[in-house]
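User: My instructor asked us to take a sequence, write out its structure as tokens, and then describe one feature of it. I'm not sure where to start. Here is the sequence I was given:
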Amino acid sequence: MLPARRREFFFEIDFASAAIGRQSFEFAFTRQGFRREIAPARTFGFFEEAEQLRAAGYGRGADLTNTLVVKADALMNPGLQRFEDEFVRHKILDAIGDLALAGAPLLARFEGRRSSHALNNQLLRTLFSDPANYELAAA
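Assistant: Let's start with the prediction itself. The structure tokens for your sequence are:
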């Protein structure tokens, strides 16, 4: 997280599967941009992990009609894909949601590289663990 005058996001992913590979995306938050560029990005998962996730209580509503499913090096349902780089866009969507747990928009630049919900949560915990790390802006 870096200081910034506006909400900015950069994310980079790198998966072994050729269906995803290495992707990066940069996004300066605006409501219109969010609706157009980020919100439509579907979640994704790996076919090989589906049973394990369901057994742990996750992904119960996920199926081939609403989730991009990667099996080995192929996307099982390519007709659902809305963007060529949809996987990294969805990771930005995740980060926006994770950072919303701060309770107010963070005027900062988020840079995620292989980040996860747990890591994003730890980022917020560290940020707010010391008042010297941030300042509250007037509304």
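For the description part of your assignment, you could build on this observation: The first helix runs from residue 31 to 38. Try explaining in your own words what that tells you about the chain.
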